[in-house]
What we know:
This protein is α/β, with parallel strands linked by helices.
Amino acid sequence: xxxxxxxxxxxxxxxxxxxxxxVTIKKQTKxxxxxxxxxxxxLGMIFEKSSxxxxxxxxxxxxxxxxxxxxxxxxxxxxxxxxxMKDTARVITRMVDMVMIRTFSQQGLEExxxxxxxxxxxxxxxxxxxxxxxxxxxxxxEHGKADDPVVAYxxxxxxxxxxxxxxxxxxxxxxxxxxxxGYEPDAAVVADAMALAKQSGAKIxxxxxxxxxxxxxxVVTTDxxxxxxxxxxxxxxxxDFAGYMVDSDLMKLAKEDAIFLHCLPAYRGYEVSEEVFEGxxxxxxDEAENRLHAQKAVMVWLDKQRS
Length: 307
Ligand code: CP
Ligand code: NVA
């Protein structure tokens, strides 16, 4: 049995296999053929943080695969009143076929997985957002940007940055990260990514200059400066991130046909300008839709591993 907790646990071949499966399932769905790969299966969906895309894409995804989703907000279940992760895991996973969790700590997620009888999917932690990256890579492929791309990430060194680092390191492409000083990605994740990059041939460049990162890039991406749980730091962060907005002047430094990605929700006038967000290079709504297709592939792939 396999879980989907971090991209670190997957080989390049496995990640590309999941992407290929997403392409197939998307094609089938678009042709009106919703194949019930997960007939009668139940996906438990535990949310300790807010969500629009993750919730809708997993719930619709499991439904279209022939199963059903069970939305479990920590505001309602006993987990939110202090029932331990390991107890929650041992109860819920005796009743459902797969679990997706959005939570704070990666350790908490891993503890849940340790006690789980069924595959567990990371629907975002403070450290990683791996399912988002599957959708992002699918979007890059569809827009002709998966062939030896240069990806520029500008902004906060957060869960999205960490997942980009691991994706680049696994697949072997060039990733340039520009964060303000003091907001660099986690040192342990960077060390892991650098070690993996040696094997894959990925080029990972970390710095503080958005212009240098974006120069000649095929893909430009960013994320909110204030992730869930950091609301108290809002004012300080807005000051510290001055000069890190992806605006038209910055986009002009990328390749002429570069695409703009953002996992959403986006905060216009902060990490991205209105003009870039709504502009022709922005493919953020293709990216959002691809959450559905990529995650169906993750679920079907995980199901295959146990049979
Ligand atoms: N990108 C993303 O995960 O969106 P939600 O927070 O709306 O799920
Ligand atoms: N970095 C953001 C991503 C939201 C999908 C957060 O963790 O809030």
